[in-house]
Specification:
By secondary structure, this protein is of the alpha/beta class. It folds into two domains: 104 residues, Urease, subunit C, domain 1, CATH 2.30.40; 294 residues, Metal-dependent hydrolases (TIM Barrel).
Length: 430
């Protein structure tokens, strides 16, 4: 080797040593392999629905350390990235279930024998976040186990119940929706009993001490009753302790009264009574998000083609009007500008209830509308719009890959091939 060649080689080595990025040198006789880092994932060749209204025909999503790092076209993969070729499949934000009851039967037996499988069912259906509106206290242990990595499952938001009035005992039933006192002619005609303010405050304090994320109540207003004042106290106290306050109000009358207390969201679309456009605008002007739960009153059909209610018992045809009134009121509220989220209020298999809610939503909403409801709408309704609901840099990497395009065929939302929750692949059928 000449002196000139030696000098050139030395100069190249010095440049490499001083470079900010380490250089990898390969040759035919020598190569250096870079180990794959499973915290760095690049999804390529994807039809990306980012949840903000944008669509990328040939998009990519880069995930680093549990967060979305970039979304765009022709992103360059870091050397250590795990590459997922979506092969033209749809990539969109992880689904959010905004009103669910998770634990069934004996809570301890469910935790021991069903919890792990049920969490896999939610993930397999694409749900990376689930709001448990009311469940047994074991829901807190389930949330802890998932958060600490002892069980793989969706992010759990947990709520507990606080009453805002004392109504006379009603008819005993497996499902209170069958004989809802909000439904005429069964509405109360006398004022309900008042729950002492100190009791409401203590119940909220107990919920905060236990570690719940929110408190929930049911509002059926009575003539000259205490409901709005007590609800307002519950909401204000919840906020003092860092909790959300959510409200079940299922008639137009009850919804119009409930919004006066300024809860964080309404867990149902009013499905009893017809909204006027003026009433819809009044609800929207309160700027309180609302969940769908339209399929609660739509008949399910069992393997024998028999219509059943959400409790699995024969369908109550006296509730059928709600199956139509809910979607109609939902559209009127949407036209007025409601922040609308996805929720089912059921306990059936997650994929089955997703299909049922899509069927009910599709009565009055387009595919594009429903995608918005399931992404930004639900994220805002559960108070996590700064973290989830869209594929944007800095957001938590909750991602689903679908076989098909739900903007063309809504039911492609059922074709979940891969799920990433917090940057970790938790379902992979590719």
């Amino acid at each position: 080797m000449t002196k000139l060649n030696v000098l050139i080689a030395t100069f190249v080595l010095l440049l490499a040593a001083c470079s900010e990025s380490p250089q990898v040198v390969t040759s035919e006789s020598d190569s250096i392999e870079v180990p794959i880092d499973d915290t760095v994932i690049l999804i390529t060749n994807a039809y990306v629905i980012d949840g903000t209204g944008n669509v990328l025909e040939q998009g990519s999503v880069l995930i680093e350390n549990g967060l979305i790092s970039a979304v765009g076209n022709d992103l360059v993969a870091p050397l250590n990235a795990y590459i997922i070729d979506a092969a033209g499949r749809t990539v969109m934000p992880g689904f959010i279930e905004g009103h669910r009851h998770i634990i069934q039967g004996n809570p301890d037996e469910w935790m021991a024998n069903r919890a792990d499988a049920n969490m896999q069912e939610f993930l397999g259906a694409g749900f990376t976040t689930v709001l448990s509106a009311i469940d047994a206290p074991q829901i807190l242990e389930l949330r802890r186990m998932i958060n600490q990595g002892e069980m793989v499952g969706p992010r759990i938001l947990s709520g507990t119940f606080i009453p805002v009035n004392v109504l006379p005992p009603g008819e005993s039933t497996s499902d209170p929706a069958r004989t809802d006192v909000s439904r005429p002619p069964g509405r109360p005609t006398e004022p309900a009993g008042k729950i002492p303010d100190e009791t409401i405050i203590e119940l909220v304090q107990n919920a905060a001490a236990a570690g719940y994320d929110m408190v929930k109540t049911v509002v059926t207003v009575t003539p000259n009753g205490p409901e709005v004042d007590t609800l307002t106290l519950m909401v204000n106290t919840a906020h003092e302790y860092g909790l959300k306050a959510i409200v079940h109000a299922v008639s137009v009358t009850d919804t119009l009264e409930a919004i006066k207390a300024r809860p964080d969201h309404l867990v149902h679309t009013p499905h009893i009574m017809q909204l006027t456009e003026e009433q819809a605008q009044t609800i929207v002007d309160a700027d309180i998000p609302m969940m769908s739960t339209l399929s609660t009153f739509v008949p399910f059909y069992d393997e024998n083609n028999q219509p059943i209610f959400r409790d699995g018992l024969p369908y109550g045809w006296h509730t059928l009007s709600s199956a139509g009134q809910g979607p109609v009121n939902a559209r009127l509220l949407w036209n007025a500008g409601i922040t609308y989220g996805f929720g089912t209020d059921t306990s059936f298999h997650p994929r089955r209830t997703l299909k049922a809610e899509l069927k009910a939503l599709n009565l009055t909403f387009s595919e594009q509308d429903i995608i918005k409801i399931m992404t930004t709408g639900t994220a805002k309704a559960v108070g996590l719009e700064s973290e989830i609901g869209t594929l944007e840099a800095g957001k938590v990497a909750d991602v689903v890959i679908l076989d098909g395009n739900p903007l063309e065929d809504l039911y492609d939302l059922l074709n979940v091939d891969l799920v990433i929750r917090g940057g970790e692949i938790v379902i992979d059928k590719l």
